[in-house]
Amino acid sequence: MNLLLLEEADFIAADRVVLRDRRLTHMQEVHRCEVGDSMRVGRIGGLMGSAEVLRLDASEAELRVTLDQPPPAKLPLTLVLALPRPKMLRRVFQTVAAMGVPRIVLVNSYRVEKSFWQTPFLEPEAIREQLILGLEQARDSVLPQVVIEKRFKPFVEDRLPAITEGTLGLVGHPGQYPPCPRALTEPVTLAIGPEGGWIPYEIDLLGKSGLQPVQLGERILRVETAVTALLARLF
Fold it and tell me: In sequence order, what are the beta bridge partners of 23?
């Protein structure tokens, strides 16, 4: 935890918070905090800064906070992601939050198993938990927006064109396609498929909505690896 994130409910005054959950345990067992120590903190959805430990015991910690720094800028990106398998989904949420993705759209695909949509990891609180872990790692305080679209064709035909308008639309997909571009500054809409990739029908439909296929080479990557590799190359 490189940043202690503060919830609205933690505040007992404008510049005071009381912590009693896993963050208290982390302060005690990892940071080995003592009264008078300073920590990096951020208010979820708001500014970042520092906090001084005023009181610390086995049950709670009281901190005086100073929030005067903006969070880091997000990437100019909307990530359209075919729903990964549940265990991988948690890691992907952490990765995209840490890398500064502001918006993630989870979509269905022919190769996405129906059972994946039943995972408890898609519950709002479970999603939020993983995103917060990513923000803590990267020192960011603004949660990405997560949108769930269970019907591929209506989403791609009816809603994706409005998302891609004014952006560079790309689909990460292995094959005889142009290499993924590097070091962009313009807004991007990027679609990444499931294990096994998009099927030709899906590539065609994505193309009609403004997303053109690009590739990273001959190697076939896991979804979580492809997400990291594509984002690092693009930005």
Answer: none
Q: How many residues does the chain have?
A: 235
User: Which segments within the chain are labelled E, that is strand?
Assistant: 4-6, 11-13, 16-19, 38-43, 48-56, 61-69, 77-82, 103-107, 145-149, 168-172, 188-192, 212-214
CB atoms within 10 A of CB 41: 22
Contacts of 37 by beta carbon, 8 Å cutoff, 6+ apart: 31, 52, 53
Contact (Cβ atoms closer than 8 angstroms) between residue 193 and residue 177: no
Q: What is the pLDDT of residues 49-93, one digit of tens each?
A: 999 999 999 899 999 999 999 999 999 999 999 999 999 999 999
What does the pLDDT average to over 31-45?
94
66 SS3 class = strand
| Rounded Cα distance, 140 and 48, in Å | 8
Helices and strands of the chain, counted as H and E runs: 7, 12
Distance CA 174, CA 172 (A): 7
Sheet with 212-214, edge to edge strand ranges: 145-149, 103-107, 77-82, 188-192, 168-172, 212-214
What distance in Å separates the CA atoms of residue 90 and residue 98, rounded to the nearest whole number? 13
Give the up-direction half-sphere exposure of residue 164: CA atoms within 13 A in the CB hemisphere.
Answer: 21
Tell me, what amino acid is at 141? Answer: S
